[in-house]
Amino acid sequence: MPAILAAAQRALHERHPWLITLGYRSSSIGPESLAYFDACLGVLTPTHATARVKFEAIAVLTGLAALFAQQARSETSGAATIFPLVPLESYPHLAAAVAQPAEEPIAGDLFERTVRGVLTGLLQM
User: Fold this and answer.
1) What is the C-alpha R_g of the chain?
2) Contact criterion met (CB below 8 Å) for 119 and 5
3) For each of the chain's 125 residues, which pLDDT tens digit applies?
4) Separation CA 125–CA 122 (nearest Å)
């Protein structure tokens, strides 16, 4: 269920890229924002996390959604950076990682895996 809320938040940021420029301030919170927080808290009810940890998880979830939406826009605009086009002699760890042979893609959606992994880690604290 958290992944569904995260996907909805990501889709919202993809439809409205200007949202990230608003920032998150109390003056920008309306009924839809309140409904989102309430739905997230409802999904997190079964966890034994404190309210503070739940709000932190919601903030990270929202940030991930915005980040993935922004990345999707960059990829479609051709703005994605490709490391091999840059001299990497001064960056030995990056050069070693880029030199690794290509791996088989991991099954499943990267966004969903990231959301699940991050929320699992946060809510276990």
Assistant:
1) 18
2) no
3) 667 777 787 888 788 877 777 666 666 678 888 898 899 899 899 988 999 999 999 888 888 888 888 877 666 544 345 666 778 888 899 888 877 777 777 777 888 888 888 888 888 86
4) 6
Q: Which residue is listed with tokens 């088989």?
A: 104
| Cβ proximity of 2 and 115 under 8 Å | yes
pTM of structure:
0.67
Return the HEC string of the chain: CHHHHHHHHHHHHHHCCCHHHHCCCHHHCCHHHHHHHHHHHHHHCCCCCCHHHHHHHHHHHHHHHHHHHHHHHHHHHCCCCCHHHCCCCCCHHHHHHHHCCCCCCCCCCHHHHHHHHHHHHHHCC
Read off the tokens for 75. Answer: 């990829």
Residue keyed to tokens 């991930």: 64
